[in-house]
Amino acid sequence: MTVAIEMGQTTAGAPAAIDLEELLATRLLVQGNSGSGKSHLLRRLLEQSARWVQQTIIDPEGDFVTLAERFGHLVIDAEDHTERSLQAAGERVRIHRVSTVLNLEGLDAENQMRRAAAFLGGMFEVARDHWYPMLVVVDEAQLFAPAIAGEVSDEARKLSLGAMTNLMCRGRKRGLAGIIATQRLAKLAKNVAAEASNFLMGRTFLDIDMARAADLLGMERRQAEAFRDLERGQFMALGPALSRRPLGLRIGPTDTQPRNAAPRLLPLPEAALEDARAIILAAPPPETARPQRRPAPDLLNQLMAAKQAAPEIEPDTAEPPLSAEQLAERRERLDRILRAILAEPDAGFRAIGVLYQEFVVRCRIEGLGAVVPELADFRRMLTRARAGLGADMAEDDAWQDVLLRAAILPDDMQGVFMMIARAAKEGWPCPSDAAIARAYGTHSLRRARHLLTYIEEQGLIVCQLDGAGRRIVTLVELAWATAAADPNADDLSAETACTG
């Protein structure tokens, strides 16, 4: 059965429609300058297809929350949720087939990217049994898949760009049909834009954008000037779900209206404001306490202050050899610095290079700059720390066999294996999927389960479920076994169990 979604009329007055089934297989790219009618086009498409297919809208400005009253979309205010909870919400959205609006209004650019990436990741990583067809609309897509680095951190940009690339490049087999709208193609990452086979090009004025739009639609360069003459709500269409030849169309009306309406001219008040200076320049009201994002530690200023306070050291002075007690104290100080870094909420998901840089700076602040471990040694320290092991415990004879077994695994998996081994040795509850994912540095619970399966395939562990569905992990040949525990427990309880 072919489902035709009516979008409006062509320039010749005929009905203009989109083949919904073809759209699900070939994706859509919308371009137009601000005020060209992109959001109106997306709203029309969502309204007309709401009864046929599940939908999710990544909404940076809160324009689409009004769909909830008319069409029953669930509005998720990202400001009230963590990345972890949004990832779980993304998985549940697909399992229960609920249309949603992810409202990112009120967040800064970096947090918008992080939360959108977590939500998209949850939808992408869901099990195969729940790969139902779904429209995923991303408004202002250049914010989430920028062509060049901006003011946000590299980590946030990589997370968001990776999620958008998965949506557009690998989403089709999972039933996800990406519909992305952008003000300028030049601002959008090419590997994201290139996966769309359908195009709706609205009004644009820059020569480079007009030329790229003409190339995508198969028009001659001399015809590119036509994009300047398009009115608001007019688009040039091309693609297997739209038209085999460039086709002009005008988007029809919508049943709902955006929460942020377009500005209109209003006459100024007739009565003059008395004592305008006193009213406008009055003292501001007292600030209300608002929860603020915890600022990053000002490590450079701390380093400079510590350097100025440190006594001058003669360059010719040789450091005397350290006693065993002094070496143990130094090792404990390094472990304490590493534990402080890992105690930060997002430390489990930061790149190892970023963690190492912060570790070096903190070591210098503590006066340990001359003995900072190399990156390879830091990796081993990090692996032990994520497993909850101190340096003294890792050197225990009982752990030598565990370390030898861990060596057959890739470096990034060894910490997970040692965390499980410690829980098994102490008889603690088996770490949950969330705890394993955090130790591995990912938000994906599915990836954590695959990791556990991989370690089992290497002959290192055996996983079992008891009658209540709780997981028990046994280390092969060591006769160590964890206590039974729910694999779906939250991250906090798992970490508490494994740190004693």
TrEMBL record:
Alphabetized InterPro entries for the sequence: AAA+_ATPase (IPR003593), ATPase_Atu1862_pred (IPR014588), HerA-like (IPR008571), HerA_central (IPR002789), P-loop_NTPase (IPR027417)
SUPFAM superfamilies registered for this protein in UniProt: P-loop containing nucleoside triphosphate hydrolases (SSF52540)
Domain AAA+ ATPase: 24-338
Domain of life per record: Bacteria
SMART domains on file: AAA
Protein name: AAA+ ATPase domain-containing protein
Organism this protein belongs to: Bradyrhizobium ivorense
